[in-house]
Amino acid sequence: MSTIFKNATLINPTENLHQKGSIKLSDQGILEEIRLDGSDIDPSDDDELVDFSDGIICSGLFDMHVHFREPGEEYKETLESGANSAQAGGFTGVAIMPNTKPAIDNEAQVELAKLKSKGLPVDIHVTGCITEGRKGEKIANYGQLKSAGVCALTDDGNAVLNSNVMKMAFEYATTFHLPLIQHCEDHTLSGHGKVSEGLYSTLQGLPGIPPVSESIILSRDLYLLREFLTTKNERLSYQPRYHVAHISTRYSLELVRQAKNEGLPVTCEVTPHHFTLTDEDMYHSNFDGNYCMKPPLASTDDKEAILEALKDGTIDAIATDHAPHAIHEKNGGIMNAPFGIVGLETAVGLTFSELVHKNIISTYRAVELLSSQPRKILGLEPIRFLKDSPANLSFIQPNRKWTVNAKTFKSKSQNTPFHFRSLVGKAVGTCVKGNLYLHFD
Fold first, then answer.
1. If you average pLDDT over every residue of the chain, what do you get?
2. Can you tell me the distance from the alpha carbon of 125 to that of 149, in angstroms, rounded to the nearest whole number?
3. Which of 240, 258, 275, 340 is surrounded by the fewest CB atoms within 10 Å?
4. Alpha-carbon distance 124 to 78, whole Å?
């Protein structure tokens, strides 16, 4: 049996596609037919027909920044529960960060993650560490990690503070055609801070994280990148790639914008919580540990800068930084809470509610930021709508109203500041790895 979706809005930025059409999917997830000329696909007797005139069928969404906690903290999340959460959120693929216990800094850990990911409902790509054990002291074996199949290198959760180590990382990551993803934070400045340093940290009497903590590391890395390109350019067969994780401040965005204007190979991502919330929201949450994240929620001015950067194209991708924690870990207030929130199951709703429906970005651009751009940044194969080929699709109802209920998350964790928040726009299905998964309820 096959399923025909008619009158859908079809979007695939890789193919510059954005128009009404119909598609036919086999029960093995094969794209049997696609019509873009306005004509209907004739169903056979056993085909199921779905009028998707209120929906978008797009190239599968990809989250390039998630934490699935396995191995080491499976009580928070596992590869399986994380994959289920991604599927429920409309994602067909994710890139897992290597800050597990032990860290993914060698071939064995990469192979273990890949082995345990087989049979799960989304594609799971693995990132490896920039330095051994994420300690920032000695670069990992990039050749080994590349051979094992990592798609990028990052010490996410930690910045590489040692400038000489970072200089070497640029050189060797480029040799092995691997992008570097930097968690930009000067830990000597952020120290034991829990929230963004400013008015609200002062009113709460909480230790603050100076916003400059982010931009100092970013500025240092851009200088290293400039020097590397100047001294090595004639001998480079492959350009370096530098990506800024979860960017959050106006000055950091200005640095990225300037670097792009110079032609530097720099990209950046933003999280839904940073384009939705501010430190004022954190202040009014009555010290709720679910508002504790890193980078911390920034000022209204920083949020406005993020929205400007989404409009002008400075920001290249939306990524959730999905960071599960157990209920008991978050319930002790901000001072005792670990950093991070879950985000896979609210990302589409927040993107459409806060960006598309408020005319910050177009629907097409939202799909680009959530689908084709993350794959491009990581050097992954682009998705194409090819007849008689396996489909990789996400299904979205952009005008669907719903209310977030953390207790129904597929994730093992419920740590979100968006519990009971009303949203407009919801992911209702995926087709990937031969499986069509729809949930219109």
1. 96
2. 8
3. 258
4. 12
Check residue 42 and report its DSSP letter: P
Distance set, CA 90 to CA 65, 243, 328, 402 (Å): 15, 24, 28, 15
Q: Is residue 230 classed as helix, strand or coil in its secondary structure?
A: helix
The residues that are catalytic are: 321
pLDDT in tens, 198-222: 999 999 899 999 999 999 999 999 9
Residue with tokens 């990148």: 225
Three-state secondary structure along 66-130? Answer: ECCCCCCCCCCCCHHHHHHHHHHCCEEEEEECCCCCCCCCCHHHHHHHHHHHCCCCCEEEECECC
Domain 61-378: assigned CATH number: 3.20.20.140
Contact of 228 with 170, CB cutoff 8 Å: yes
Domain boundaries, the chain: 2-56+389-438, 61-378
- Give the fold, CATH level 3, of 2-56+389-438: Urease, subunit C; domain 1 (2.30.40)
Backbone phi, then psi, for 132, in 5-degree steps?
A: -60, 125
- Lowest average pLDDT, out of 87-96, 283-292, 303-312, goes to 283-292
Residue at 431: amino acid letter: C
**363, exposed or middle or buried, with CB in 10 Å at 0-12, 13-18, 19+?**
buried
What tens digit of pLDDT does each residue of 63-100 get? Answer: 999 999 999 999 999 999 999 999 999 999 999 999 99
Alpha carbon distance 334, 195 (integer Å): 8
Confidence of residue 38 (pLDDT cuts 50, 70, 90): confident
